[in-house]
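Hi R.,

Here's the chain you asked about this morning:
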Amino acid sequence: MNQKKKISLSTTQIILLSFLIVILLGTLLLALPVSTKSGESVSFVDALFTATTSTCVTGLVTLPTATTWSLFGQVVILLLIQLGGLGVITIMSGFMLMLNRKLSVGDRMLIQDAFNLNTMSGLADFVKKILLGTLIIEGTGALLYMLVFVPQFGARGIWISVFNAVSAFCNAGLDIIGESSLCAYATNPIINTVTMLLIVLGGIGYIVWWDVLHVMKNRSARNKHIFRHLSLHTKIALSATAALIFGGALLVFVLEYNNPLTLGELSLFDKIQASFFQSVTTRTAGFATVPQENLTGATAVVSMILMFIGGSPVGTAGGVKTVTVVVLLCSALATVRNKNTATVFHRAISGASIRKAVAVVVMFVLILFSAAILLTAVTDAPTVDVLYETVSAAATVGLSRNLTAGLNTAGKLIIIATMYFGRVGPISMAVAFGKRRESENLVTEPIEDISIG
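And here is the predicted structure, written out as tokens:
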């Protein structure tokens, strides 16, 4: 008797496929003549590249967003950014809740995997808070942008403000102002401040939002020990974010101080805000107020390190994440000190967390170097530009040293794959397509020491 086999996908596989489906649908829409200002269809590869960079909230573009795409095309791009930033599963779950439909166990498992949460309790409330918080922050950002863009562009400034607010919060880095990102606003404190705040709020992670709000709500405003009552995750995310922002800004300020092509001609105040913007935007945002190709080699290396680290877990940012790096550093420090347990903020870090951090970084490095080698093979660009491009793509940043637009078809396909794998997450790919055997949990292999280092 022939029995039909039921196709069963894991929750992680569903998440991966959902991103892929959205990218393909976006590609088909962007390939339509109505999506371009010229009324002529772009190539399939360019449509695929744009759909991927939008859904994966990266920001690298082969075609100028402002001058290539019509209003219809820009709307499609904005929807892809929002879907990619919040996650397809979150959007669909939000619609279900709006229709008063209860989330099934399967739905809750999808949300749990999509946000890498440790529990399924309170997920419906979690989704509602994410959607409401996103709407409030993006709306506020759009209104603040209008203070600059409406006087400059008139009614079109409203659409530019909305687009930029969503793109900044989702850490996408795409804009519809011109072909030089935000370089024209390098000395504008409103644009700089609003953009940086949106980037940080999107990249810090939703878990941090609610933990901070919960502690502030339940503690006296006069209490000076609010930080002490935050969860370990929040403490690490906030501390690492602050250290990277200020440390990165200091390095950029020092290394670019006399560079006439970046900060050299700016006033002291403008040098400071441009340095902070570069430090923040490299944390997977992709906007630029100084041309990236004009940065010194040292600053390019600093920027790549910041891009590699990225934002914090359960947010809109990419990279290996701040918490991952802190966990690895604490584990390494514990080994150097010959301690059995890695600790941070007087709390022990679980072995499972350390193993997961190692897996994320190793998989990310494999993707990064594979892309760098392949891209080097198909282009004659300088090595630093290739590395900058691949780190930016893998970490879903969107900054480029003027290389993206000149890529050939093979180069574009390499970056497309890098953006996709970088967004869905190295560890998610390993879990989704790795077959687990029940016997693995029952059999213990013999242990033997080996030499390390």
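One quick note: Residues 11-432 form one domain.

Cheers,
M.
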